[in-house]
Queue: 4 jobs
Job 1
Amino acid sequence: MPKVWIADKMSQRALAIFEQEGIDVDYKPGLSVKEQCAIAHLYDGIAVRSTTQLKAELLEAATRVKVIGRAGIGVDNIDVHRCSERGILVMNTPFGNTITTAELAIAHILAAARQIPQASSSTKAGKWEKSRFMGMELTAKKAGVIGAGNIGAIVCDRLKGLHMHVYVYDPFISDERAQSLGVTKVATVEELCRLADVLTIHVPLLDATRHLIDAKMIAAMKQGSILVNCARGGIVDEDALYEAVASGHLRAGALDVYSSEPAKNNRLFELENMSFTPHIGACSDEAQENVAMQVAQQMSQFLLSNAVSNGINMPSMSDHERQEIEPYTQLCQQLGSFISQSIEPGFSQVQLCFEGHVRKLNRTVLRNAILQGLLSGGMDDVNAFNACSRAKEKGIHIEEVARDRSDHFSNVIQIKLIADSGERTVSGTVFDGIKPRLVSIDHCEIEIQPQGHILLLENKDRPGVVADIGAILASDQINIGDFRLGRSTTKERAIALVTVDSIPSEDIFQALRGLANMISVRYIGLTHA
């Protein structure tokens, strides 16, 4: 029975879901790092929020863990790169708190426009300063939204409900997507800053987005505009924001996130026309329950059936996508294993080609399956999550192309492996949507089901070779399950793939290699589907 540790405070609904699914679960939040490291090796999965730091020492102690689930969006507290190297799936719950976070951004915009925090403090102090708190009407104003993902798209919808004109900067959305959101897409952040009366940020903190809103961008903003950040601290240069608000260039600013958290000593707190919340974007009863339930469901599905939802280091797929791609994933792993055993080690380059409809499937999954099969013979810790990084560690260069159609089949996956000892190319396809088949070796057409004990024989194309092979195998009572032949286009070389019920002895291999017209003999062991 898989075992999961809930390491941070989380809704009790998560425990109930794990238990319903047959997962053994321990709820142990609030432990010291030393205490965490002492128990981490007991678990197949760890569920966290943002407190537990799954990095360095703790991650190394989690020797058994297969999946880490983040109840929320950001994974700043998880070393995703190291998890990928270790073959650990990292998943989050990007939809559970999207509405809550979007609504907080809208609340900050409204509060900044009408100076509600300041007016509240003044009124509670016994003052009645109506003329002091002159607000800004949002109707017909221009809203600038940086990032139109899950949260940003909801913010756009709410801003349109306030009858604002909404403009978006997001290089990853198409014109069609912008049109469907009812927003105007702009080409640069600076262009958005120049036109927006209100600028709100909804992108993750990456190297590319750190200080995305710097002194230059803030200077480009309209005199008297408002800046709101409920995304991640560090996206806004806080020193530049301080100067702009203190000087009156910006009417107001509002932050839920900070470059250093918990933010207890931040000079922005000195400014009267700034308002703040303590990183509460996901803090609502509904959101907390949603993300806890989602992470428990996702982790259970993975631990029990390898289903991946919202994988950070592995693409997610719907049930339909998973069913469609599964035979191809199986084929890719078998082809990778076959080609690695068919040539001497010392691989330097892998060239992958996806032809036909298969090119439209999730090629990251297919590529990883090929690399997993390729490397699994020489590495015991390679899997679908770390195969690509393992290949790169080995100095293997990976190339990938896709083509609309294949000359012979509706779908073909081709692997060309370049090694110190030479090159080899194998191709495969899936018949009837469910039957993986190898269909060519070094462009010799030959079809076989890639599983079980297979002998790969290369010989000069001369009469009598097939009979000699059969006689040698029969001499050791080795039963032949399948025997397939292929010929090179020049008809000078032939290939035989022979499926046998048991692994021949070394004497049999020597006898086969001793045949007059034999070029090479290799044994290839493939797991059964």
Note: The first helix runs from residue 12 to 20.
Job 2
Amino acid sequence: MHAMLADLLEAAIGLLLSPLVFVLPGYALGRATGVFNFCSRTFVVQLAIAMMLSVAVGPVLIHLLLRFGWIPVWLTYGLSWVAAIVYFARARPSIVGLRKPLLLSLCIAAMLVLLIVDIGWGDKLYFSVVARDYLKHFALTEVIRAGGLPPTNPFFFDGEAIPLFYYYGWLLMTSALDALGGGLVGPRGAVIAGSAATGAALVATAAVLSHTLKNPLVGDRGDSGKCARPFIAVALLFVGGLDILVFLAGMAGQAVLGMPIVFTDIEWWNEPLFLWLTSLMTVPHHVAGLISALVGLRVARWAVDPVGGRRSFGVVIAGLAFASSALCSIWVAMGAAVIACMWVLLNVVRKQWKEVLVWISAGLVALIVATPYLLELSSTGSTDGSPLQFGIRAFGPFDRYLGIGRTGLDGLAHLVVLPLGYAIELGFLAFAGWMFWRARKRIEAPLSQDERLLRVMLAVGLIFPTFFYAAVRMNDLGFRVPMFAQLVLLLWAAYLLDAYQSGAIDLPKRRVKQLLLALAVVGVASNVANGLLLRFVPPAADAGLIAMPGMYAPDRQLGERTFAQHEAYEWLQLQTPEDAIVQHNPKPAIERTDGGLAFQPALYARRPFAAYDDDMSTLFSVSPERYFPIAEDIVTAFVNPTEENAEAVAERYDLAALVVTDRDPVWADRNSWVWQRSPDFGNAYVRVFLSSSQ
């Protein structure tokens, strides 16, 4: 079967199984506890809440159970499936109104699958740009599914298994999908299906929050009558900022200067506030962390004055959700923690003691259930200095072209233009949010507690990453915490449009309506353009339509080369056990400015490596001092022409196979061991040699 069809089949099976992980557990939990007024909601809203609860509770639940093996996980999840079926049978819920939301969710899931899977024809195969992010997702899903917890680092092995230093909560859910598939899904299908299911959960989150939180411009419609807010909120997930304008200006500038046009993402002109589609395609684990945090924040508010359930249930579920957020994304959880602390302080000042007690109790639950994971991180990882540093959020052109830093007087320069950066990044949402608050100020009613919490979320989402940044590789704090502000602005924009659509307000001037429409069109164009770029840059570069990004290949044979490596690693899966170490050249011939980056081995091998490359191998707290001596020794097998050296390297690191490609120096030397020895597998681009000691 062609690799593209295999991807689609595995992802399709994963999607069919995904309700067992991403829907039914949350439905059973919602019905059993009544949290979030679950039992009084319509069936459509119940299913949406069920997706939110499944994402919010699943990671921490699996983490606590999987240490004892998969059997406790399946017993617990199996009970939730039985309970959900029993609840369905008793309630006999009406499916009226389900068809459109279900069709929408399926369309979004299908879109994400098609944007992520490999595409190919004949002897060509192309991964998408997001493959760079999915290298670790595929490998870690395989490691967790096969080895349980605590997981080990699959990208480096020097004779000692290294515990994984990473926030892998979302990958526990994809590993469960992989295990459920029993070989029919695999890590690729599980991760792709999990990304699609997380996209559907984000849609559910936007719809539920917009539907259940009161719109002060029109009053609370509740579940009765037709409410446009959920549909507007979902539509706004596809409205980005003004990045497309910067992208087009950059292309024009490069054309004038006669420079080759190489873009793989339109958002990196600045320190980005990522489009929702980009986040789902590249970092679904951070999106899952956001959903978990939002569930924690919303359920904690519900637990103050619970309707249809017990306060204790709300406290526990909010705590579990906060813990899951930490497991999925440390940075998102850090933002949620700051929001929670600011909210508690605000309520202490206002003497809202019941609110304070609920939130502190939820925080203690989160700390207790997250402690095993936090202890695991503290015992396995190490960082040089604090991962959180003070510094002004960088404005891309100042940083990239003028070399202006984040701190001191340089930081003030970034601060001056920061509103411009935010305005470009947020576009329609920023303007619509401002319009909402102009309309809200004209209403004399005081702010509700929910409105106050949204304002705290907005403030933290913008101010916290403005003055602090993550000093660990990339600024994930600056990329992920602003999602809270983006979500609040999305809700406010939905409120504004809902009020306008219902006739409750009128926009003041015709040019304001025209500006809103123009910003919305540009925002949608940004989303479409970036999705197409992330999907089609590799085949477009191979076809000569754009310059080839250096990290992919030096020529226009990426499609054939990737297909050949997929074929080789597929053969290796049949010939070697799951724990066999297979080794490629950890120093690719074409290097990025900050080191090499190999794609195909982690995408297709489903095996651990002694040394992957200087990016992946050191990502999970392996120090460069530990990595480079091993990598440089292994590289000699792909440079030194003698067979004795290759055999010695394989024996030293217990390598089951050496995978040599046409880009390795020994390939070009027809007198090297690669050509003097018959391969166990070979094609035009790859030769695989099994170790004689295996």
Note: The chain has a mean pLDDT of 88.
Job 3
Amino acid sequence: MRGVGFGTLFLAGAALGLARAVDPLGAALAAAVGMVGTVLGRGPGGLGWMGAALLVVALGALRSGVALPGPNPLTPYFGEPASLTGTVEGEPSGRGRATLFRLRLTRVSSGTVGATVLESSLPLVEVAAVGAAAQSLGPGDLVEATGRLLRATPVAERQGARGALSFPVLQRVISAQRSAMTASNPFDRLRQSVEDGFGRYLPSPQGPLALGTLLGGTAGLSEQARLEMRTAGLGHLVAVSGYNVVVVAALVGVVSRRILGRWWSIPLSITGIVLYTGLVGAPASAIRAALMACAALLGTAVGRVADPLTSLVLAAVAMALFDPAVLADVGFQLSFAATLGLVLLHPRIAPAIARTRLPRWAAEPLSLTLSAELATLPLLLVQFSQVSVVAPVANVFAAPLIPWIMAASFGLALSLPFGELGAVTAWAVWLPATLLSEVARLASQLPRAMVYLGNVPPAAGVAMTVPVLAWGLLGLPEGRDLLDGARLRWRRRRLPARLAAGVLSAALVASGIAAAARPDSAARVEVMALGRGYAAAARLPEGATIVVVSGRADPTALASAVAELLPPWERQLDLAVALDVEGRVALTEALRRYPPRTLVEPGGSDTLELPGGQLAVAADRADGGGSAALRFGALTLALGGRSDADADLRIRTDRDGLVGVETRSGDVWDLWPVGEDRRVSVLADGEQVWRAR
């Protein structure tokens, strides 16, 4: 438990450093103080453990602080139309109609700034693109993209991105670059041949599902199939996780043990794990699982039983030491939380499920799914504002199919070089993959299969996580010893002290709930540049929530922005307005998640009275587009093509598509571009107040 404690403190410090909550100089000073405290506090009754804890936290923060990137070479190009040249890094993924990928730049040029050839420290840029060229991209493709370069979002920046490019014009050069990359990388060459073989023998969605189960990824799945898997809570089955690594290790171990004996099976199993991790692209979740599996195998070799909790924490510490940015990777966070749930919560949940007398084939998947779901629920709510209600039931029927699909897919991969044998083996893959697809489809069609909430702050996620994990931790023998000691110390305290502690805790909880439920006294409007369009989302003092959209905004990004504006307990918009046909398409995902009480379609004209404000919509263009004026408090915000003489703020887009907010001081208008920082917040409490962020 001591190793788990210090490992957890190191990870906490690394997370603080990654969030820039502690600068490297402050971390170094804290480490020095902790070292002095560790030395001076040694001995019976000393406080050396406090110094050691401070030292470990400070070292974690110092490691992250040192690893943070230096000056951004792309800063002069932000907000400028630029031409970027680079290679695709990693496997592209889909989000709505867009394809997301990362571009490792080698050259960037702009008409106003000039050209820069990047020879070292090649920066990563996040790109969201549409069209056939984007959908056919693969790792190593040489790409030239032209568009407006923006600053990366904070989350993407923590994951290594130095810029963002939304909906650029793409030119792709595959020939020399991709062939050279695949020729020099046997893992990529092997994966590409397996992908081609699965596509040759299996239709969609069976082929992409089987390939995702074996090697991870959903690139070949249609958007509808991805939505069904996500809604049913089965998305983790087509993502590389610890389960895949355990299956590979067990398969290699069983075969090698029967042929070569016990001692040779361990190095061969480790070799198989390393090769499989490289084959699937070495994502953070696979690396974490591989480190844990290798630690367990090495422990077996020296005659020690590996502790899964210790192995999990030490694997995370090793990854954070190598690259602290991995802690900001959502895939790693979900994998870590799910494994933590299996370690801490499954021993508690499994006996309770067993007492229900469910058959074993249903009880085991249900207890495993509930353990992982409870541990990852806060993270899902904070990161995605959504949770699948049907996931436990869907996993009961889907989990038994996964070993069948993996074994059959492995057999198909081995039989691909033998022509007709592959066609025969493909039938063994098609049947379970079809059943998995049907489970996802039927589960996703159940009423309220996916629940969408508003913005859940990280503090609320921590508040949900701590008691659940503490409940699981106290089920361990070490946790029960800690609990017994705490009970003894608590009983020794006098009644007034215990009563005061209870009253103080209740007061803090009540204050937090009251503060969260109290409506904001100031109106809040956020203007967001979302691809080739923009959205203005307003939260009025009385609690009304309004979204006005124009242009080809990205539907998924818009839905996520709406979730950030809503409080956790609200699941509906009061008003949604599409100023043009493209804006109505962009609203599709947001309307599905948060159905509005009132929807204004393109071409409509009306004046709507709202609690705390008024919205006037006018169809003043022949193409069905429109404009709007939102009045709240003493402010009037003009949107779209409207030219309102009484407006205090106007949202405009220039000919290059850059969204900006024009603010008036007297008769002078100043343009605040949204494109650089992605959004501008406008607050109004009776006075004109603007804040860019």
Note: The first strand starts at residue 81 and ends at 95.
Job 4
Amino acid sequence: MPKSVPFAPIFALLAPGGALLALLTISLFPRLRPLHRFIVPVGAGLGFLGVLFSPMEPSWPILLSRWQPLRLFGNFPALAPDRLVWPLALSLSGAVLSAALVQMGRLPRHPPFLGAAALGMLSCGLLALWGENLLTIILAWAVFDLAWGTGMVAFGLSPARILWRMGGGMVAIILLWVSGLVLEGTDTGSIWSLMVSPQAGIEFLFFFAALVRLGVYPFPSVLPVEGERNHPLGSVLFLEPILAWSLLVRIFGQARLPLPAWPWLEWFAVGTFIIGGLLALTAPDGARSVQWAGLSAIGGILWAGIRATDAPQAAAIWLIGGTLWTLGISLLYLGRGWERPSPWWIGAGIGTLALAFTPLLGGASAPLIGWARWVGFFLGQALLVAALLRDVLRPSAGEESGGVWLDIARAAGLGIPTVLMVVVVLLIPGLAGPALQDWRPSAPGWPALAVWILGIVVGSVLFRALPLVQKGRGGMTALHTILKLDWAYDLVAGGLARGAGLISAVADVAEGAGAVLWALAVFLLILVVVLGL
């Protein structure tokens, strides 16, 4: 009897895609353009429902097409909507739905292309999370980058900065491509799937691809942050790291590749943990510190997984941490600042608690050894807490628009990630399937918990003392500029431009007036080589 195709995962992919096509269609008709504010929430909501009900159906692979663009991979685009990455898929769809609902209840309206980018990122993000093989993931990552770039254009970001970040995505895709080449030459064969275990030795390629996707320091992190963050859909542009969390969970939790044993990798994560907090504290204003606070939390989660004793334990840490990070950064971005009479700051406060908790995930079964690690954990936690407080307690951007329906939309948008954060994280051990059944979260040891609490206290004190530190604003601005590394990227871009100019000038000479001389020189060189002169 042939297997029936699961409906919910396919519906979760097609619903945002259909909404995207509807959004582009009504943009051609001026009278229908006011409807575009409803299409994004409807598409995101239907996609969320598809993800929500997908565990109720069989999780066998789904063939999407018999189109085979690259014989290298010996496979077709296919889905594997297994329960292992279901929490990440639910957090992605919930975060997009949350942003769309809050956007409905807030003015001014968002740029039309921003809604299209959010829907495209949701559909391609789910495809990347559920990709059954490398071919599917590569295609999903490529289209995801195009949707992300469209959102950046809607924000008015300069093309040069957009190309820098999209270039990082291209590097990650190339790393996956090279891993396919390596697998082609092993006994695994060309039909390698993420559902089975390949030979060890290629985990470093996947890990580097994940690091680039995470945007860890010093890889460029180009994100638009408005002064008052008027467009909640902009939070979707922060969600690219979920692709990396999913890849790490699949590779180390499902394929069971061994964790890379690189001593420098741990310090790389610690540096991201600490420098992200410094960048957030030295940012020009509190509204622009959210992306750096998220970067610091990424470093803490990455470090927690690296310190795990085995691959399944690391995958479980990254699964829980990635889920908390996705929902927490969305709630943090949607916040409007501190306003005592208003209840809307509560969502951002819950997101702050979630991100502040994430570095503690690794303390349960991988205790810190050595004074340098303890100091790094303390400094990173203190700077992360100060950065989070700077964002959530910044001056309010103003009162929200009035109206019962607008209030309901905003409340639903802030409530969905909060409920998911509590329910999904508590139920992850039972929802992730048999792949992670050999590891369960446990309470962290007292030393790690004590240092974590001390970091929270010191971070709170640092936040309170920040106005005094900011009197020397010039020094903080200089430190932020140095750590941000835009100057280094500009130097590299300038060097590449000059090199391209030199090559162009040589080509003009070779193809123009100097063509005869170059032809004569090449002829004489061949003559010398042939005659042995």
Note: The first strand starts at residue 62 and ends at 63.
